[in-house]
Design brief:
The protein is 16% helix and 38% strand. The longest helix has 13 residues. Bound molecules: zinc ion (2 copies).
Length: 123
């Protein structure tokens, strides 16, 4: 079974992100001991732990290209997905706004898709 998937922009075909599912003990880095899903690319990298079944079903949704399911499981992980368009866009196609702060702490980042839909792209 493939344990990684490369996602490409529906608009310009550029790389959006590479998602890799690691078993405990695989890969490198400080989280090497944990089973995890890593997103490399888009607005910063994300490592998702937590419930193994949820992590696997998120990965399987992305493998199938089922972003509706993926968005339901973890909207932040698929921040590159516009649910109004039902498409994914790379960070160059999103018009990504400045980071928003709440009382000095990072809160989230909004973006606007090429069709003008605004949503949170990073949380
Ligand atoms: Zn693009
Ligand atoms: Zn859109």
């Amino acid at each position: 079974m493939s344990n990684s998937v490369d996602l490409y922009c529906d608009r310009c075909r550029a790389s959006v992100a590479r998602i890799t599912l690691y078993d405990a003990g695989e890969g490198e880095g400080m989280w090497q001991k944990e089973k995890r899903l890593e997103r490399a690319g888009f607005i910063g990298d994300i490592i998702k732990f937590g419930h193994a079944a949820e992590t696997v079903s998120l990965f399987e949704s992305l493998l199938r290209g089922d972003y509706v399911a993926a968005d339901r499981i973890d909207p932040d992980f698929v921040g590159f997905y516009c649910d109004d368009c039902n498409k994914i866009y790379c960070k160059n196609c999103w018009d990504v706004g400045p980071p928003e702060f709440d009382e000095g702490f990072y809160d989230c980042t909004y973006g606007t898709c090429p069709e003008g839909h605004e949503q949170t792209v990073d949380d």
